[in-house]
Design goal:
Elements (H helix, E strand, L loop, with lengths): L3 E4 L6 H12 L2 E4 H11 L2 H11 L6 H13 L7 E4 L5 H13 L6 E6 L2 H15 L7 H15 L2 H6 L4 E5 L4 H13 L7 H4 L5
Parallel strand pairs: 1-3, 1-4, 2-3, 4-5
Helix pairs in contact: 1-9, 2-3, 4-5, 6-7
This protein binds adenosine-5'-diphosphate (ADP).
The site of adenosine-5'-diphosphate (ADP) has 18 residues, from helix 2 and helix 3.
Length: 204
């Protein structure tokens, strides 16, 4: 199985690249941000709680997002692998993800991280806010808070994957296609035994 954690700050381009990678490598895309937005749109109790937290730029509770990921992994026993987008975002989530995968006797293959400066992230989020309608992209204060939360709670998990030699930073500046090519190169140089059967059928 090829299991990729696609990592990066808010607005780094994870969602866009995750869709392209999903298609290229035949993986299942799991985005906790998308899952939470669906809950909000459905008007569920859970969505109401999540909506408030997200619009302030804070993180949803670990237990809630871990449960969502557990459920989605369980729904796809046929998956050749997963792209985790926006998850894990805390140390507790990273540990929980390893446990969930261990139950399936698989592992995270790599964390591929999009490197984008804070200035660029801020510019992109403000620009996205003009069209996305996302409450958390509208205010500069909320955007600053999201970046702060990213530094404090999310960035430290790089060390967790680095210690396992699974951390692969990639320059996140450039066109969508340029960045996609960089990500593809990294994924193709990962330990081939982990996924050679699934990759050899693709024309890269
Ligand atoms: P971004 O563009 O900020 O990367 P996402 O769509 O991944 O956006 O997530 C939007 C918001 O949803 C986050 O700012 C956070 O409030 C919440 N969220 C998403 N994933 C998680 C997670 N794994 N843990 C906690 N909160 C999350």
């Amino acid at each position: 199985m090829l299991n990729i954690v696609l990592f990066g700050g808010p607005g780094a381009g994870k969602g866009t690249q995750a869709l392209l990678l999903t298609e290229k490598f035949g993986l299942m895309h799991l985005s906790t941000g998308d899952m939470l937005r669906k809950e909000i749109a459905s008007g569920s109790e859970l969505g109401k709680i999540a909506g408030e937290i997200i619009s302030n730029g804070e993180l949803a509770p670990d237990e809630l997002v871990i449960d969502m990921i557990r459920e989605h992994i369980g729904q796809h026993p046929e998956a050749k692998g997963f792209i985790f987008d926006g998850f894990p975002r805390t140390q507790a989530q990273a540990l929980a993800l390893d446990k969930l995968l261990e139950e399936k006797d698989v592992q995270i293959t790599a964390m591929v991280a999009l490197d984008v400066s804070v200035d660029e992230l801020t510019t992109r989020l403000l620009k996205r806010g003009e069209v996305s309608g996302r409450a958390d992209d509208q205010s500069i204060d909320v955007i600053h808070n999201r970046i702060e939360v990213y530094h404090q709670k999310t960035e430290p998990i790089i060390d967790y994957y680095r210690a396992q030699e699974k951390y692969h930073p990639v320059d996140g500046l450039g066109s969508i296609e340029e960045i996609f090519n960089r990500l593809k190169q990294v994924i193709l140089t990962l330990k081939p035994h982990a996924f050679q059967h699934s990759v050899q059928n693709y024309i890269i």
